[in-house]
Amino acid sequence: MLVYAVFGDPVEHSLSPAMQNAAFSAMGLSARYLAFRVRRERLRDAILGAEAMGFGGLNLTIPLKEEALKVADPDENAAAMGAVNTVAFGDGGRIRGYNTDGWGALRALEEAGVRVGGRRVLVVGAGGAAKAIARQLALSGAEVSIANRDPRRALDLATAIGGRGYGLGDLEKLVPQAEIVVNATSVGMRKGDPRLVDGRIFREGQTVFDIVYNRETELLRDAANSGARVLDGVMMLVWQGALSIEIWTGRKAPVDVMEQAVREELRNR
Ligand code: NAP
193: Cβ–Cβ under 8 A, 6 or more apart, which residues? Predict the structure, then answer.
């Protein structure tokens, strides 16, 4: 039996074990996916230990994605993002780092029939997830603007990907102009979080993608009420996990089974 794991701190609420175990079992693989709480200063020990024990591969979540660059040899994409969310072990102790978050977001949009090439996209947020998404969408030909609470971070990210950066005070002007709006902040994860924008600002013909996946956010409800097309964060989670499985096993992952597992887990919480 091959062991896979997600490392994070905290990690007990991770949906990845339910999702990835469902995938492995549907694929007929003799594998088990576990969650381990790993402190940042012990990440090197944990990754080297997993490699030594013959683990099949790892996912990394908050706050370990950046630290992992000191241990894993990143591919071009992970190096450009400065963050690793997938670790694969190769021959001779080789430890490779990948980042599947941006690709997961792109696939979630594409599979929902949303074309990004040539479209005006507003990414709200400039943290880890926003960086991955903004970079991937820019690479896919979207015209990307970034708005963030700390406008300096938005400007830095915009400079890195060839887009424009703003503060949240500009959202009232930016949202109506965008064809696709992505919430890549953590706002909406908790009931009672303040709204980022007035709920009546959205419109028909717009796609609003909120990468928060643990609950239906006010943002998505507002957008749907205004006639916009809405996507929650579950399919991004599923696609980024599916790409991790492809990297580890060379096989396509069963995304429908994974989505069902995630939605069931969320219902039971
Ligand atoms: P992060 O690196 O900590 O970034 C957090 C972002 O949220 C920053 O842009 C931060 O702005 C902004 N923010 C936080 N509190 C805010 C507030 N009260 N008002 C306005 N902006 C605020 O976190 P992350 O890893 O990017 O994750 C962000 C969210 O994406 C989380 O909800 C996470 O669960 C979700 N996520 C989903 C997936 C998926 O597969 N669906 C994958 C990864 C992450 P400042 O820069 O100004 O602090």
Answer: 187, 218
> For ligand 1, is residue 52 a contact (CB within 6 Å)?
no
Structure confidence by residue, pLDDT tens digits, 117-129: 999 999 999 999 9
Rg of the chain, C-alpha, whole Å: 18
Average pLDDT over residues 148-171: 97
d(CA 85, CA 192): 29
Q: State if residue 129 touches ligand 1 by the CB under 6 angstroms criterion.
A: yes
- 131 Cα nearest atom in ligand 1: 26
Judge whether 68 and 50 are in contact, CB under 8 Å: no
252 is catalytic: no
Peptide bond into 63 cis (omega under 30): yes
Please state the three-class secondary structure of 67-90 as a single string: HHHHCCEECHHHHHHCCCCEEEEC
**Residues linked to residue 8 through DSSP beta bridges, in sequence order:** 37
Ligand 1 binding pocket includes 260 (Cβ within 6 Å): no
What's the pLDDT tens digit per position in 203-256? 999 999 999 999 999 999 999 999 999 999 999 999 999 999 999 999 999 999
Cα–Cα distance, 111 to 92 (Å, whole number): 37
Residue 91 has pLDDT above 90, yes or no: no
C-alpha–C-alpha distance, residues 223 and 205, integer Å: 11
Task: Evaluate: CB of 188 within 6 angstroms of ligand 1.
Answer: no
Query: Cα separation of 33 and 21, whole Å?
Result: 6
Dist. CA 92 → ligand 1 center (Å): 37
